[in-house]
Amino acid sequence: MLELFRVEVENQAGILTSGLLELERGVPTAEQLDTLMRAAHSLKGAARIVNLQPIIHLAHAMEDCFVAAQRGKLQLRQSETDLLLRGVDLLQQISKGVETNSTNWEAELRDFLSSLAALMLLEKGVQSRASSPTLRTSETSLSPPARPAAPPASLVATARPASAMPALIPRKQEPPERVVRLTAENLNRLLGLAGESLVESRWLRPFADSLLRLKRNHSNLSQRLDQLRQSIENDSLSERAESQLHDLQRTVADCQQFLTSRMEELDLFDRRSAHLSHRLYLEVLRTRMRPFADGARRFPRMVRDLALALGKQVRFEMTGENTQVDRDILERLETPLAHLLRNAVDHGCEMPDERQRAGKPMEGLVRLEARHSAGMLVVTVADDGDGVDLERVRRFVVRKRLAAPAVAEKLTEAELLEFLFLPGFTMKETVTEISGRGVGLDIVQNMVKSVRGAIRLTTQRGQGLRVQVHLPLTLSVLRALLVEVAYAIPLTQIFRTLKLPRDRIEALEGRHYFVLGDQQVSLLTAHQVLDCADPPRIANELPIVVLGDRNARYGVIVDRFLGERELVVQPLDPRLGKVQNISAAAQMEDGSPVLIMDVEDMVRSIEKLASGGMLAKVQRGGPDFSLKKQKRVLAVDDSLTVRELERKLLTGRGYLTDVAVDGMDGWNAVRSGQYDLVLTDVDMPRMDGIELATLIKRDPLLKSLPVVIVSYKDREEDRLRGLEAGADYYLTKGSFHDETLLQAVVDLIGEPEA
Description:
754 residues, alpha/beta, Four Helix Bundle (Hemerythrin (Met), subunit A), Heat Shock Protein 90, six-stranded mixed beta sheet, five-stranded mixed beta sheet, 22 helices
């Protein structure tokens, strides 16, 4: 019961704190005061259940204050708010110290109740000090404070008459959301089981694919029986042999029809099972998500108290309170955000007289925003202060001997701001309790890197500093790029991917590089970093993953891009220790394992190779035409299942196969790559398959490129529409179950190797 009570104290303390800060910022409303009164009343009732007399008296005294404010007999100004916030802190302190029988709070409680009683006895500007309540020093009991007999709520009018109090503005009350509490361990186990269910559901697809071979065997058997019957048509057979042959043909046909029906049912079950497992996984994943406000409740109070301590006027604004964030991310984010907000108040916002001289409002502004963008959580902390003096930073860099004067003069704004993240780097001349040791931004950057995120600073002189933190939405699921070396690279840590023509490779002092923008990017192969055999490369374009930061970037050559995936992260067994270049693992749809790269560790490995002069040269010449050249096909479909099925069919036959997620993606791919054939769906977002086929056939350089439309639409008018757009074949997606699709590809471009 005490554990449940402590949880309730935390919840109600959050309501009291946010409500008091809201009252301090503007005109009180009826709903605000009612919410505060109910929170104190609920705490009083809960304390009665667990028989905690000190909290009963404390909550009752605070409830009387809110009732007096509701009746217009008490005005809650800054001094009153300070006292009530002190009471909220005391509530939490007592609830945490009950189990250990701590009595450190008794003197503070006595002083608080005395101050509150004195506040309540103010009448017409004359303060009458109330007598101190009697305090019994037993372990669990505290006598209530002495209270006057009238009025009923122990309240009399303040110096300001009731008629002068601002009118209470009613607001619409929303029903509270029901909350069920679960332990983190239970949620993690549930998420693990949901992830396993998702992987298991995808194992049906390889099994269904294997049945295609059985169907082909049936087809071959039926054809051979037909050939046998034709070859013996002129021979005289007995009636019994003729009947047996006829029965055999009918049996094979029945088996073939039965197998086709069962395969269709299995395919339907596979799709339903995969869809249900995916929905289950997403729902379980959502249970790990919490509103951003849960991790930011203490920030309004922290900013207010800090501003008062510094003699500044600061208004705190927060947007995106309901933005959903993974519980683990939220817990790790709280301390770094506290550092950023302290910096914004202490370093950013000026003193009121300074702001007035600069033509600004005396009250500074600190904003905290949370939102989702491009599959990431973006948290922004901004102030409207003076901003970062870049020339002053430049002088500090030289003074601390972090760069030579000639080098420091050439540093850009972004490079200068990077120095703020260095441990011990601070612009403060003196150390205070709030700042001056240069650890705040260092802590923030370490946390962001630990969760595969990124941080960016932007400043404008006289208008403030903006810190933007990009974080993954969850640590349980990783969006990654799969590459042919059987590894997954987190997307958030990839600067860029591209296919580099060999003629763009340059050489300098025995090392190869290529130019990206205005930067030289060193080249090496993934096999060299991972210390494994590098296969011969026959393609004229090299798949490159660019890693590193703006100070040092490296282009890592992989065998092939396999596309983006959402992977359920599985930590490695701790008995393995730290595995070089690897951070975690995951399972693919077919159950096969894949290792997730530790990009920072990989960059360190590359730098070690580079510093030792051990980077191997990259083959700069064109493809080796003595080897057979594989033909390349582009599969365009907005369905992941269809794309993968087409890719597996074509790859299994020997064709190099790339995929595109919609018509626009496919159009960009055919213009930048070299393909022998395009497979496309019809109904897709941004650009449909008909429009894609039309654009290809109208392009002078691409009009000879064969296009095959594969669609669920099997009506004659749909087929004619596709052929009129220039498609060479129009097939239905049922063609996946036989050789029709592959035969169409062979008819158009021949065998996989030429």
